TrEMBL record:
The keyword Transferase applies. Signal peptide: none annotated. Homotetramer. Belongs to the polyphosphate kinase 2 (PPK2) family. Class I subfamily. This is ADP/GDP-polyphosphate phosphotransferase. Its EC number is 2.7.4.-. It is an enzyme of class 2 (transferase). Uses inorganic polyphosphate (polyP) as a donor to convert GDP to GTP or ADP to ATP. GO terms for molecular function: polyphosphate kinase activity. It holds the Pfam family PPK2. The keyword Cell membrane does not apply.
């Protein structure tokens, strides 16, 4: 690979104790950040930027909630979330990075990967879905792939959400007991529950090999879901230079209603239970 000038990644070990963020305070700040994300969206479209954001972390680290906080007020035509399933038998025979390439951003797009090609450095390595040789080839090849992405004009941001064993267990148990979240708990989560140390070794090896000057890793403490969402949105806004695009003020014109008589068609209205 040659000489890779790396940035330093400080993996969160000790949890910084902060007072719980009040919901009203959180919603106020999130609203402000959502306005900035809309400005970023307009800038990306206007300037034809290509942005790729990767989210990685252990099960229950808060990736999905953070991605939802980022995307809930922007256009899905600009912010596109990619969460690929397990590879098919055909994909297993292809170049490892091949199935990810079609999802990379075109001009005017921000693509968010909810887990990514780094599956090979994490779950595939720990669960034995690939050989040690394949892992080494991936760790050698990932910086090359990412250098090519950056050289092609893609703004690449990589986030690792760090959670403690205690908080991870609390969240996984919450999924078991909450009918709204049970779908998040996969058989793989159960199998990997007792492999904390193995995942730690895999994470550290991944950082060592792929934390480069052109594609550094950013680590976010995710003990507090509200804080990590605000912290990550704030951070990514600083990583993509943007300006507010002037938009002409829109006034709704007067409209004339009443020339068409109401239809007698027997519409099937939804039952109003509430």
């Amino acid at each position: 690979m040659g000489n890779k000038k790396k940035t330093s990644v400080a993996v969160a070990v000790d949890v910084v104790k902060n007072a719980p963020l009040k919901t009203k305070e959180y919603e106020k700040e999130l609203r402000r950040l959502h306005v900035e994300l809309v400005k970023l969206q307009q800038w990306v479209v206007a300037k034809g930027l290509k942005v790729c954001i990767v989210f990685e972390g252990r099960d229950g680290a808060g990736k999905g909630g953070t991605i939802k906080a980022i995307t809930e007020r922007v256009s899905p035509r600009v912010f596109r979330v990619v969460a690929l399933p397990a590879p098919t038998e055909k994909e297993k025979t292809q170049l490892y990075f091949q199935r990810y390439v079609p999802h990379l951003p075109a001009a005017g797009e921000i693509v968010i990967f909810d887990r990514s090609w780094y599956n090979r450095a994490g779950v595939e390595r720990v669960m034995g879905f690939c050989t040690p040789e394949q892992v080494e080839k991936f760790l050698d090849g990932a910086p090359v792939m990412e250098k090519a992405m950056v050289d092609a004009g893609i703004i690449l941001l990589k986030y690792w959400l760090e959670v403690t064993p205690k908080e991870q267990e609390r969240r996984l148990r919450d999924r078991i007991n909450d009918g709204r979240k049970i779908w998040k708990l996969s058989p793989m989560d159960i199998k990997s529950f007792n492999l904390w140390d193995e995942y730690t070794l895999a994470r550290d090896a991944m950082f060592e090999a792929t934390d480069t000057a052109w594609a550094p890793w950013f680590v976010a403490r995710s003990e507090d879901k509200k804080r990590v969402r605000l912290n990550i949105i704030s951070h990514l806004l600083t990583q993509i230079p943007y300006k507010e695009i002037h938009v002409e003020k829109v006034d709704l014109p007067k409209r004339k209603i009443g020339k068409v008589k109401p239809t007698k068609y027997p519409f099937r209205y939804v039952e109003e239970r509430f």
